[in-house]
Design a protein that fits this description.
The protein is built from twelve helices and 15 strands. By secondary structure, it is α/β, with parallel strands linked by helices.
């Protein structure tokens, strides 16, 4: 039996603009949270794993929205709810105040909230640079949390004391599970195509209601599991059908949540019933997957009911109905016999790995140059499309920024051709890529 515990959560809490995101970035070791002088920039909870084995620490760190934001009341309520949710889950709260400004009513409000929550608190006074800031330190004893640790997150001063406090308050790293990012799969398809049966087959238990009545699963339920000792999150998406046939608000929100599931997944399984012909709704789902730049596996379900099925004929049907998903792998699946299940999951991990690749900038620019030489774009009245420089912005999906002469010269067909060539030459044959165009700024002396 594994005796390791879940990762403890450490929440950074305070009023707006006391330096929570700056401290967050210091502790994480990279700039991940947006740092702005404008109060209220961080509106959502932002959580990242931290591993500092030199301090024997392994935990999750949360940057919260500032308490007391009043730019929009609906956002203020949402942010404070996010903060309270974080406090409920936190093993330790880093309560941050601003030494330069000294004690203010919002600090007292945060202190009251922390006392009501019964949270374990480490009190920290940030921006402790200069004599005035040192004098202001004395004011904070009125909050009832003892003397604060004086730090400057911006300059990196006092962080050793913060790490020492964390080490004393949290369990040792050896007692905490390591982070391993789960593969997130959106399972989508029309109603009654076997999605819930597939989820249950992977789990080995009936966690999702399975029925012959179409539309039994209305919520997009996240289910965590281990597949060959690797973490997976399956989103068993509510069955989809035409918007014109939405019966009520529950069905409408099921459609919305299905789209949201596709957005936040690494890849998508599109379930098609082999006993029925693809319908317009299947094609619309395919286009949604394409619009979200998600890798997809076309899954033909209920293969046990069609024993004489010709796989080649099914592949031709898929190519006819889903030309926009050309190149997507196809798997025939039977939830009854289990045939196709292992191949499907192996494909999913392969696609995640392929979609997570980052291409070195030098290699990318050489490939882009080759692509443009091969495509030989013709110039119209406005000139010929040209690219000066390319870089990869992110993975999942692979997103490439191209600095070009004029964006309007890159028509849709040209972008599709560039995308096809990049996928083929960069190892993304089964992965959609996203292209972002930006015009290169020219100096005033060179403008026409």
């Amino acid at each position: 039996m594994d005796s390791k515990s879940l990762r403890p959560l450490v929440a950074i809490v305070g009023r707006p603009n006391v330096g929570k995101s700056t401290l967050f970035n210091r502790l994480v070791g990279e700039r991940r949270a947006i740092v702005e002088p404008t109060a209220g920039v961080t509106r959502d909870r932002f959580i990242l794993p931290v591993e500092r084995l030199d301090w024997d620490l392994r935990f999750d760190l949360m940057d919260t929205g500032g308490i007391g934001i009043v730019d929009r009341q609906d956002l203020a309520d949402s942010v404070e709810m996010q903060v309270m949710t974080g406090l409920e889950a936190a093993a330790l709260v880093l309560f941050l105040v601003d030494c330069r400004e000294g004690l203010c009513p919002l600090d007292e409000e945060v202190a009251r909230m922390l006392r009501r929550a019964g949270a374990q608190v480490q009190f920290i006074a940030n921006k402790a640079e200069g004599q005035e800031a040192e004098r202001n330190l004395l004011e904070f004893s009125a909050l009832g949390f003892g003397p604060p640790l004086a730090i400057s997150a911006q300059e990196g001063k006092g962080l050793t004391e913060v790490w020492q406090a964390l080490e004393q308050a949290l369990p040792p790293a050896s007692a905490v599970e390591e982070v391993q990012e789960a593969l997130r799969i959106a399972v989508v398809g029309r109603r009654n195509t076997g999605k819930s049966s597939f989820v249950n087959a992977l789990l080995g238990e009936q966690r999702v209601i399975v029925s012959d009545v179409p539309g039994t699963t209305r919520d997009a339920v996240d289910i965590r599991l281990q597949w060959q000792e690797r973490p997976v999150v399956l989103v068993d998406t509510a069955g989809m059908h035409r918007r014109g046939k939405v019966a009520n608000a529950v069905e409408y929100f099921s459609l919305t949540r299905s789209d949201h599931a596709i957005r936040r997944a690494h890849l998508t399984f599109l379930f098609l019933d082999l006993t029925d012909h693809p319908a317009k709704m299947d094609q619309e789902l395919g286009r949604t997957i394409q619009d979200r730049y998600k890798p997809v596996v076309i899954v033909g379900t209920k293969a046990d009911l069609v024993p004489d099925l010709n796989p080649k004929a099914f592949a031709e049907t898929v190519e006819h109905f889903f030309p926009h998903l050309r190149g997507a792998p196809i798997v025939l699946l039977s939830n009854v016999t289990g045939k196709g299940k292992d191949r499907l999951m192996k494909l999913a991990f392969q696609l995640k790995e392929e979609g997570g690749q980052m291409v070195p900038t030098g290699e990318l620019n050489r490939v882009v140059e080759t692509v443009f030489q091969r495509l030989r774009f013709r110039g119209g009245r406005g000139g010929k499309p040209r690219v000066f420089y390319a870089t990869q912005l992110r993975a999942h999906p692979p997103t490439f920024l191209l600095f070009v002469n004029r964006k309007e010269l890159f028509e849709k067909e040209a972008l599709r051709a560039i995308s096809r060539e990049l996928r083929k030459r960069l190892g993304f044959a089964r992965i959609p890529v996203r292209i972002v165009l930006r015009e290169r700024l020219r100096s005033p002396s060179k403008k026409g």
